[in-house]
Amino acid sequence: MTDPDTSEAIKAVVRRNTEQVQGQGDFGLFEELFADDFVDHTPQPGTTPDKAGVLVLYRRLRDAFSDFHPEIHWQTVDGDIVTTYKTYHGTHDGDFLGIAPTGKRIQFETVDAMRVRDGKITDHWGVANLYSVLQQLGRLPT
C-alpha cells in the first residue's frame, strides 16, 4: 500500500510529463523526469524501447500535431505504478504515420501505466486508440 503523500508525488511526476512534456513540448523537463535506464514495454512502431525511443515518439506527435495537448480524466496509483486515462487532442498539420497533413482536428484516448522510482519514470506500458485517429483522418471507415 502506498501512503497518500507518496501517491500524490508520483502522480505529479506523471502529470508533469503528460502536461508539460507531451502537451507543451518541454523536452528539457523530459530529461529530468525519465530515468536513463527507462524501459518502454509497449514501444510504438519505428521507435526503440528506451528513453531515446520515447523522445522520438513525443517529438513525432508534436511535429504532426503542433497544438497537441492532453486532457487527463483520472489517475490511480498501485505501489509505484501510476495509471492514467487521458484524451489527446490536436490539429493534423504535419506528417503522421505516413499521412500528409489534412488540417483535421483529432482526438484519441490512451491508458498508460508508468512506474516512478526516486522521482523518475523508469517503465511504461500503454494502449492508444490510434485506430480512431486513422478513422478521423479518413484512412479507415468510421
Automatic annotation (TrEMBL):
Domain of life of the organism encoding this protein: Bacteria
SUPFAM superfamilies on file: NTF2-like
Pfam families, alphabetized: SnoaL
InterPro entries, sorted: Cyclase_SnoaL-like, NTF2-like_dom_sf
PANTHER family in UniProt: ESTER CYCLASE, POLYKETIDE CYCLASE SNOAL-LIKE DOMAIN
Protein name, entry field: Ester cyclase
Organism the protein comes from: Mycolicibacterium nivoides
